[in-house]
Each structure stands twice: as C-alpha cells, then as structure tokens.
Amino acid sequence: MSKTLKEKTAHGIFWSFLDKFGQQGLHMVVGIILMRYFLSPAEYGLVAVIIICNALGYVIIDSGFSNALIRKKEVTQTDLSSVFYFNVILSLLIYLLIFLAAPFIAFFYENPLLIKLVRIMALSIPLYSLSLVQITLFTKAIDFKRLAFSNIIALVCSGTLSLLLAWKGYGVWVLVMQPLSVIFVKNICLWSLSSWRPTLVYSKNSIKDLWKYSSKLLASSTLSVICKNLYASLIGKYYPIEQAGFYSNANKYAEISFQTVIPAISTTVYPAMSNLQDEPEQLKKAFRKTVRVSSFVFFPVMLGLIVAAEPLILTVFGTKWLSIVPYFKVLCAGYLFMGMSSLNNILLFLKGKSAAFLYFTLSYNIALLISIVISVHIGVLAMAISWSIVSVVYTAVYTLYTSKMIAYRLGEFVKDIIPYFTLALVMSAGVSVLSYFIQNHIILVGVQMVSGAAFYLGITYLLGSKVFKEVVEIIKNKTIK
User: Fold this and answer.
1) Contact of 253 with 34, CB cutoff 8 Å
2) Residue 148 and residue 265: Cα distance in Å, rounded?
3) In this structure, are residues 478 and 18 in contact, taking their beta carbons and an 8 Å threshold?
4) Out of 129-138, 167-176, 471-480, least confident range
5) What would the pLDDT profile of 273-300 be if each residue is shown by its tens digit?
6) Residues with Cβ < 8 Å from 225, sequence gap 6 or more?
7) Each residue of 382-409: pLDDT tens digit?
8) pTM > 0.85
9) Which of 223, 413, 428, 429 has the fewest Cβ atoms surrounding its Cβ within 10 A?
C-alpha cells in the first residue's frame, strides 16, 4: 500500500469512526431519554412489527448498486445518472405497494392504527433514494468527513424534534417521525456538500452492467433484512406487543457496537483495498491488519457489555426495561462472532464473488428461518438463543472459506485474534467479580467500565502491542506509520 493510500485510508478510518460513534452516541442519548421518560415498550413494539417494510424498501432501492459502483474502477456520469433515476422510480413504486398493503398489515396484527403508521413511516423510502449516489461517491473517494458532518447534523435535528414531540405527548408518532426527519435533513446536507448532479441521461446498458454484480447482493441483502426483522414481527403476532418492544430494543443496543466498530473499519478499508486487487501479498497484509484492529476494539466491548448488562440497563433505562437483560446478553454473544464474519464480506466483494456471497447468505438465512420456526412457539428467549447459535456456526464456516481466497491460513487467523480475545475474556471475568462487592448498580457499572478499560488498555500497552500503537496513531495523527 503506498504512503498516500495509507494516509488517505487512515484519515478515512478516523472520520468513519467519528461518524459511527457520533451517530450511535446521539442515537443512544435520544433513545435513552425517550425510553426512560416518555415511551412505553408497547409503543416501541408497534413500530418494531412494521419496520420490516422500511428496511426492505431501503435495500431494494439500493439494489446493490452502491457496492457495484464502488468496485467499478471507471464510473461515468451516465452510470451515476442512470442509477439515480432507477433508484427514485423504484422507490416510488415500492411506496405505492406499501401504501396499498397497509390495511392488510393492520388486519394481520388486529390493530387499525397500523394503517396510518405504515403509510406515513414508509415516506422515508423515496426520500432515502435521493442521496444514495452522493453517499456512494463520498464512500468511493474515502471522504468520510463530509458523510460524518451530514449524519451528525441530521441526527441532532431529528433528535431535537423527537424530544419535542415526546414532551408534547405524541407517543408512538415520535418513532415514526424519527427516520423521516433524519433522511430529510441528511438529504439537504449531502446535496449541499456534493458537486455531483444528475443529468438528463439514462442508459439501460449501464444498469445491466452494474446489475450483473449487484443483483446477487440485492438477493442476499433482501434475505438478510427479512430474517433480521422477522423476529420482532412474529413476536408482535404471537406474544404481547410489549415483548416485541423488549426484543427489538435488546437487539438494537446489542447491535450498536457491531454496527459501529466493524462498519467504521470495513467501510473505509473496502475502497482502499479495491486498489490492491492485483497485489495478493499486500492485500493479505492489509486484511490481516484489519482483523487485528477489529479484534482489539471489538472483543473487549462486546464481552464487557455481556458482563455489565444488568446494572447498565437498570442504570440507563430504568426498571421497566429490565426484561431485555437476558435477550441482550444472548444477542451480544451472537454479535461477538458476527463481527468477524462481516470482515469476510470485504474479500468476497473485492474478488467479485457475489455468487458465493449469495450462497452463504442464503444458507445462513435458511438456517435462521428453520430456527425461527422451531423456536417461535417456545419463547422469545429461545428465539434469541437460536439466532446466536446459527450465527456462531455460520461465522466459522464462512471464515474458513474466505480465508482461502488470500491464502490466509487458519493458524494465522487464530494468531491474529486470540491475544485480544483472551485478554478481553480475562478482563470481563475480572469485572464480573465486582458485582459481589458493590450493590449500588450505578456505582457498579461505573467501576466496571473504568476498571475494565484501564486493565485492557494498560496490559496491551505494557505488552508493547503493535495494534495498540497503530490505533493511537490513527487517533492522534490520522496516519498509520
């Protein structure tokens, strides 16, 4: 990797981390206030059972074109304009379908309020289509500074509006307006910061060329979204609606670290590694470094959350949300492994193995569907456990397959991750003992977090960890030495 590319990638990682952590931080602050003081589990449950409509819409209108455009070395104005018009037209058709389906969804859940909730919430789908090309161009250029600015501004505005509506007593409508306001403000920022504009040109050939690669990603992404959101949708049907609220929030907060650390790294290194497709040794070296940095950050965070789950939730959300603790712990265990499997996607995308990605995603989601059928009538906790078991098995098989693509031997992989996993395990075991000596949950969670972080960072520093130094350099200078 050239020095210029190193600096550009490190700079991108810095801003990508700032973006992801800033987004999650704002989400958490607003979410904590809403959950603790204003909204009930049942209100969250109402939105959780219908969010699958929006999630599917987002995936379908992207159609995998973002990854295809990033991977393509020479992208023309015709390509970009064609994708833009395709996305917008498709989003309007999807909204029309959801609008017409709303009464049937309300009938399925025996709740007429869902008709209005579904129709208004789905307006975010056509809004989302308007800035997909800008996001793709910024990502391809590893320009995460502007993306971070847009995301943070949008969340600040949306969070302020949400808190105001909650204070005025709008209840579940607060959760409906959140995605609408975020995407609306984000569109304004992205169009202001980007110089790209669509021209009056559309090429079927451009769409067909991109579709050859993106179609398989679309199929796999669609399956993933369905299975991911099916849990809350079925829980809302077969169990009291508040259980859907408990599960969806347990999953949301268990997923925060997974959706922050791993995407912040993988989103940045993907466009950078795309320049190393024809340099196998350099590609392997860059990927191993990515695995080590991810392990260094991810393992202690996830294991720490499992250990501190009960006092953390009690302190942050209050007693009315304690029911999410067992779900939260089990889901965190699953995401601990899923984080590593997500890194493997980089290799498949770089090698153009979208068919293999579809195969693995299809296999994973079929296994999830089987586990859902088996566990849905046993209980909500059983559903969470079955998801984690499938995720662990999937990660093991997926990692063995992708590692062969760059001659990344199993022994090398274990060598790269085991020091950080072992140290994180020792750290979490140590802080768990503190619960026997400290009864106040606020003091307990504070001491656990501080002592755990001090122990982990202190030991890695004393051992002279190279990854520790690299992470410090990224934070301080935005460069990798």
Assistant:
1) no
2) 14
3) no
4) 471-480
5) 666 666 778 878 878 888 888 888 889 9
6) 52, 55, 56, 59
7) 999 999 999 999 988 988 888 888 888 8
8) no
9) 429
Residue 408: closest CA among 241, 283, 269, 275: 283
What type of residue sits at position 456? Y
Q: What is the pLDDT of residue 5?
A: 55
- Letter string b/e over residues 78-113, b meaning 16 or more CB atoms within 10 A of that residue's CB: ebbbbbbbbbeebbeebbeebeebbeebbeebebee
User: Which residue in the block uniquely carries the two structure tokens 């934070």?
Assistant: 475
- The answer, yes or no, to whether residue 12 has pLDDT greater than 90, is no
Judge residue 410's burial from the number of C-beta atoms within 10 Å of its C-beta, 0-12 exposed, 13-18 middle, 19 or more buried: exposed
Nearest Cα residue to 415 out of 292, 301, 300, 299: 292
The string of DSSP letters for 267-322 reads: HHHHHHHGGGTT-HHHHHHHHHHHHHHHHHHHHHHHHHHHHTHHHHHHHHT-GGGG
Helix axes 77-109, 113-121, angle to 10 degrees: 170
Nearest to 242 by CA among 47, 30, 31, 387: 47
Amino acid at residue number 278: D
Q: Any residues with CB less than 8 A from the CB of 188 and at least 6 apart, and which?
A: none
- Among 305, 327, 298, 295, smallest CA distance to 431 is for 305
Sequence letter at residue 230: L
- The token pair that represents 369 in the structure block: 């569907």
Number of residues written out for the chain:
481
